[in-house]
């Protein structure tokens, strides 16, 4: 590399107007004109180094950078530059002052073997099903070549794949605002709205779809049966999912990896169920669930609670303490907003416990009353009749009569005093109610903070075997009639 040497000489002359400048070409490099000599030795980087495509600073392109301490292979030399090869196999030029000879060995990184698409399902119990979906264009897998068969599926992903299994394409004409939490621009909007408008899904009782929620077996069975036309058996039941589960297990379509109705579905299980349905496969091991016979038109029996609303709760739970604490939580947040305090009504404690126990008996928590034809709706007529059957009617103030909040949570306790455990689980539900403030859905929060309601009832059912508790809150402006002292 050659540069012109410039010698500036100054004489003591009178100052004159003007300026002194060097032309840019005087400092320019003389690139690619010097001879190149072959070399064969290793060097260690002493200063962070840029590797360039030609031995030139101004007109070169930086190919990569090499950190201090890395060993490279020197393969050629020219004036001021070495031609080197990095361990990644990149060949280029770098300044000689950035490295020094070393006896350390140089090793090229072995190129990574290309992996077969969906390589992580090879040997998996659901390999046949996953490859069936891939070969039929229903799934593609992730960009890294994996399928992740053990990863859970959310409601949006599951709906998309099942609709594609039916249609083979995205039904974009259905990409409308079918749920408050499904926007037209969402990647899953077309599939979800198609499913709703074709009676495949209903959403939750509050009107939302909750696309990011993981999907469980009950929800998945409904979508599969309704979308892929699985034959439904004749079932008379209050349990909304029973007909869908029986439809799937009657045809051996449920993989034997399922042991509970509310178990989340993973990607492998999803593929297996689609494959079995599409190819009518009956030869694989399958899961079987038993259901108790129920009468859909019969409401929960008020006499099931004996003479008191808490008679069926374990003696290890002090419900007086639980209700006292719950009321403190409610009235504290109401007081902060300048609202009057709530008080308990024994009849509402009774009705709330009846509904919690009924929900426990069917293994799910919702507002759906026995005999309701469409699940997921808040049917005021049926709920009002349900209260009437218990001997409870409500006064009306400014169009406000009553409301109901429900929830379920984990409960695990075998101690002699389980009150704190129940309170901890109840607190999670209370906090969820309050967290709705300022969100797109505030139904539970609005009931807690309603300015007209004066009385509430709180009822529980606990299921130690399922490690669950069921909670119901009933609100009223005032009762017009009630069944009297339920604990008499």
Structure commentary:
This protein is of the alpha+beta class and about 500 residues long. The chain is about 25% helix and about 15% strand. A hairpin with a 4-residue loop joins strand 11 and strand 12. The N terminus is likely disordered.
In short, what is this structure?
This protein is of the alpha+beta class and 488 residues long. It has helices spanning 127-135, 155-167, 189-197, 217-227, 242-250, 267-279, 319-336, 346-362, 380-389, 419-435, 443-448, and strands at residues 37-45, 49-52, 62-66, 71-78, 81-85, 91-95, 99-101, 343-344, 393-394, 402-410, 455-463, 468-476, 479-481.
The main sheet orders its strands as 6-5-4-1-7
Q: Name the beta content range.
A: 5-15%
Gross morphology is elongated
Could you give the order of the helices and strands? EEEEEEEHHHHHHHEHHEEHHEEE
Number of separate helices: 11
**Which percent bin holds the helix content?**
25-40%
Got a strand count? 13
Distance between the termini: 106 Å
Question: Overall pLDDT, averaged?
Answer: 84
Radius of gyration: 36 Å
Biggest beta-sheet profile? 5 strands, antiparallel
Structural class: alpha+beta
| Uncertain stretches | 1-28, 294-307
């Amino acid at each position: 590399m050659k540069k012109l040497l410039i010698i500036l000489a100054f004489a003591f002359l009178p100052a004159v107007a003007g300026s002194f400048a060097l032309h840019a070409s005087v400092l320019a490099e003389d690139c690619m004109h010097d001879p190149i000599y072959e070399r064969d030795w290793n060097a260690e980087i002493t200063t962070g180094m840029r590797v360039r495509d030609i031995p030139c600073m101004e007109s070169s392109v930086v190919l990569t950078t090499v950190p201090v301490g890395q060993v490279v292979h020197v393969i050629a030399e020219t004036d001021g530059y070495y031609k080197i090869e990095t361990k990644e196999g990149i060949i280029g030029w770098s300044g000689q002052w950035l490295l020094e000879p070393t006896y350390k060995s140089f090793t090229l990184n072995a190129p990574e073997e290309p992996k077969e698409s969906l390589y992580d399902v090879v040997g998996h119990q659901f390999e046949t099903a996953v490859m069936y979906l891939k070969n039929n264009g229903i799934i593609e897998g992730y960009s890294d070549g994996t399928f992740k068969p053990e990863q859970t599926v959310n409601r949006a992903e599951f709906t998309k794949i099942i609709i594609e299994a039916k249609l083979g394409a995205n039904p974009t004409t259905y990409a409308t605002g079918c749920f408050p939490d499904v926007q037209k621009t969402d990647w899953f909007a077309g599939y979800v709205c198609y499913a709703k408008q074709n009676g495949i899904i209903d959403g939750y009782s509050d009107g939302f779809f909750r696309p990011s929620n993981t999907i469980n077996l009950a929800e998945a069975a409904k979508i599969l049966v309704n979308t892929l036309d699985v034959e439904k058996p004749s079932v008379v039941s209050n349990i909304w999912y029973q007909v869908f589960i029986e439809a799937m297990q009657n045809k051996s379509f449920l993989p034997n990896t399922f042991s509970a109705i509310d178990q989340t579905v993973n990607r492998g299980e999803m593929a297996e169920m689609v494959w079995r349905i599409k190819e009518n496969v009956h030869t694989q091991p399958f899961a079987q669930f038993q259901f108790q016979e129920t009468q859909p038109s019969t409401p929960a029996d008020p006499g099931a609670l004996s003479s008191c609303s808490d008679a069926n709760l374990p003696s290890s739970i002090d419900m007086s303490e639980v209700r006292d604490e719950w009321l403190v939580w409610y009235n504290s947040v109401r007081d902060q907003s300048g609202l009057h305090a709530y008080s308990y009504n024994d009849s509402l404690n009774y009705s709330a416990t009846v509904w919690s126990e009924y929900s426990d008996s069917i293994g799910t928590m919702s507002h759906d009353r026995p005999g309701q034809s469409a699940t997921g709706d808040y049917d005021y007529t049926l709920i009002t009749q349900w209260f009437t059957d218990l001997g409870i009617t409500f006064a009306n103030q400014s169009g406000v009569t009553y409301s109901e909040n429900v929830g379920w949570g984990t409960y695990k306790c075998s101690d002699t005093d389980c009150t704190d455990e129940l309170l901890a689980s109840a607190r999670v539900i209370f906090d969820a109610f309050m967290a709705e403030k300022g969100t797109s859905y505030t139904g539970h929060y609005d009931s807690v903070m309603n300015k007209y309601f004066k009385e509430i009832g709180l009822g529980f059912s606990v299921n130690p075997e399922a490690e669950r508790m069921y909670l119901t809150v009933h609100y009223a402006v005032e009762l017009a009639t009630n069944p009297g002292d339920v604990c008499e």
